[in-house]
Amino acid sequence: MRTIRTLVLLCTTTALPGLALGVLVVIPTAHAPTQPESQEDASRPDEIAQAIERGVRLLIEMQEGKTEAEWPYEGVYRVHGEIPIGYRVGGSGIAALALLQARGYPDDERRQQAVSRATEFIVHSVDHPLMAHQFEARYDVRGWGYTYGLTYLLALRKLHYMPDGLEEDIGHAIRFFIDGLEATAIPERGGWNYSRPAGFNNPARQAPFMTGPSLQALFEAAQQGYEVDPEIVEAGLNALQRARTPTGSFVYAGDQGDSSKMPVPGSVGRMLVAEVTLYLAGRSTIERIRGAIDAFVVHWRWLDDRRAKRGTHALPYGIAPYYFHFAHYYAAQAVELLPEHDRGEYRRRINELLFSVRLDDGSWNDRVFARSANYGTSMAMLALLMPNASSPARWSVEAAP
User: Fold this and answer.
1) Exposed, middle or buried by CB within 10 Å (0-12, 13-18, 19+), for 124?
2) Under CATH, what is the fold of the domain 4-30+54-388?
3) Residue 66: band (very low, low, confident or very high) from pLDDT cuts 50, 70, 90
4) Greatest CA span in the chain, whole angstroms?
């Protein structure tokens, strides 16, 4: 006889039908998320600190390239047989950000050297021909370099950790990445997408999981005093709102009318980043954010089914493996926006899920490619570090420079 596990959701109210207060969600053990050997381990500060320390060592060992300056994200997409520059820049920015935020950075010379090499690579990437703001292809991922390169450099600047001699280059690259995002925003409809069948100069369907992080990077740039086009930001926010369906899910691309069916389990990664981004601009609510976190916990099994598997958008919910650690990062970000008294239990639950998929060597990886352990480990570290991270920047047209 199969044992049944029950989980009572923490929400007081939520945007998702069937997930309101008092509803008991029953999850069969066979479908429940795998637990670590000790459920206490995932919530104990010393265990988290040890995992992050191990992650720091692994990331330094994983740094590669001619000058040992990169942590390229590896997916199935190639340009002339090579990992595209957008994945190289974006992946390097994410890994360097994890090294920056981990405790002890000012006293860790080896880490500082790794970050300095990565910073030099990222700021000089603006000279790469495939990082230019003119796109000729119908599918182009350099936008991930703009978004996460910008996110990293702004954090570097905010934390006052800019390597000596690179201050001017960092400022130039920040401006370059902002301009790149503005130049490649989808005309008329707003937002961003790496897949633009009609070309980058024509209207297309935005992808919420690209639009959300791009907007958050622009929010931070504006907060730091950089000029950001408010019309492009507002168009992106409008596009995100149009992508939300009545169930609280978000379509993979476009508006809710572009997809007749978008079940919640296939949307949990996008839901988190989209609701957080909208909330930071005054266009969502804590209740919707809580609903997105609850959906992530309840439907985590479907994300895990696609972790480290071949292919991309597999049935029944069209989940790609690359949503796995992406979703954990934005779930952790979402938790820190909840009322303080609610955060502890949500943190514990998300940390348990993360520790349950940690690999034997102490890394994390949601792809079949060994190299992408740099990305998975970085995103897991950043999720664990989220309670001590600075609050994400908010957006208002009036406050924009």
Assistant:
1) middle
2) Glycosyltransferase (1.50.10)
3) very high
4) 67
